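can u pls check wat happens w/ 2-phosphoglycolic acid
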Amino acid sequence: MIVKILENYMELSKIAASMVAGEIKRDDKLVLGLATGSTPEGMYAELIRKFKAGEVDFTDVTTFNLDEYASLAPDHPQSYHFFMNKHLFDHINIKPENINIPDGCSSDLDHECYEYDLRIEEAGGIGLQILGIGTNGHIGFNEPAEMLCVHTHLVDLSAETIKVNSRFFESFDQVPRKAVTMGMGTIMHAEKIVLLASGKSKAAAIRQTVSGGLTTAFPASLLQLHKNVTVLLDREAASLI
Ligand code: PGA
């Protein structure tokens, strides 16, 4: 693991965007794995700025998002479809047919999950995967558990995740209890991984990610087994390492 500690969230966002843009420059047909949540918002804003300045071109880029809430329609303001359109896709020149986000409303979610992994495989696998991290060590929505799933699957969200994510919903009851997420295998097969974490609330999770033992009770710890992971942190997220 390469760990880079940046001065603040803005620096972290700029470096993350430069890494994405650099990968696209190296391979204009990059298959890019994307994350939602508060953490990557700055990176997306910087990528939009770079696109408008002519510094990056998404014409041939294909994207796969990590996850989506089950039962939220794409036009629901808290769905990850909505998030991605608002924070990135509506502002760049990516082809709509190259955007992939799990369909949490599919009437056959098992088939949707199977198909999602197939589409990733057909695209040649993920070249660069962006990750955030939950305070409980989840990546995507792979929650701490005795066993972790390899492939894209339907998952019950943990009580901690429901609580943390309730800040985006009008009431606690509105937070979906299930989600579709790439599995640990899907994520670990990415050629390169960049994990972003910002703020004090992530400091303990980051310590466990970079130096804790491997355990399914803390899914991000398994990233220590991947051969090309860069962890980008601001000073607060790095404060316990
Ligand atoms: P956050 O979420 O970026 O909103 O902190 C990260 C995650 O839960 O994976």
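The pocket of 2-phosphoglycolic acid is lined by residues 37-39, 132-134 (CB under 6 Å).
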